[in-house]
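Before any further analysis, backbone shapes were mapped to integers, which produced the following:

***
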Amino acid sequence: MTAAARPAGPVAVIGAGTMGSGIAQAFASSGYETLLLDVERRFVDRAVGGIEKSLSKFVEKGKMSESDKTATLARIRGGTDLEAAAKATLVVEAVPEVLEVKRETFRRVAGVVPRDAILATNTSSIPITELANGVPEPSRFIGMHFMNPVPLMALVEVVRGLATSDETTERVMETARGLGKTPVLVRDFPGFVSNRVLLPMINEAVFALMEGVATRESIDTVMKLGMNHPMGPLALADLIGLDVCLDILEVLHRGFGDPKYRPCPLLRQMVQAGWLGRKTGRGFYEYA
């Protein structure tokens, strides 16, 4: 990475869930001093343990040396106090996909970090302009939507809000390239590109299952073998999290007012049952 692309200070990742831990790993692996924050220490410790396991797999496959693994882990510092982010020049938020939770996070972060620090959200569907509303210096606010699993997926959707400056956009595009990612600039519409296209497909697969068109295995096999998808839509929904899928569909339905984005009743029912996919051990499939 060039000196111009790398922020002058450390990077703070807010939220130590699946996405946050993956984002922290990507930055630390690229040489950044990385602060990983969450509301409870146990979430941070679990995330760091997951990062260590992920890095070990890279070592086993010969994609990383043991010394590089050690150095990467040494660049990650976990915590629960936002004040620790006081010197961060880039903040990437990866808290739950709930508008008010994200807004409150940025309200608190903006009061801690320098006024010229870039504030990036990993939201997968919430409008960037709406999240930036009320943030001091909204020109520094931008969407930086990573794909799951972050260490393996090359794409980053870079989403400009109405007030996002050219300078912020270019810095984030260069930063993403420095991580070995391919940034794609998109406009601020609900779902951006990735989820505007992906979630209706998943939703239609759930409708097909609910209506008895085919079994879960058959639906996924058709998409894998017929469309050359690496994973079927129902298995992919389990990986994403059915609650996340529902949240994104709600944003699309509300944002566009189009009934084609109406969440399938079966999806809503499964979320109500707590069958959220891999993270709960049961979704469209069962997991040990």
The radius of gyration is 19 Å. The CA atoms of residues 213 and 219 lie 9 Å apart.
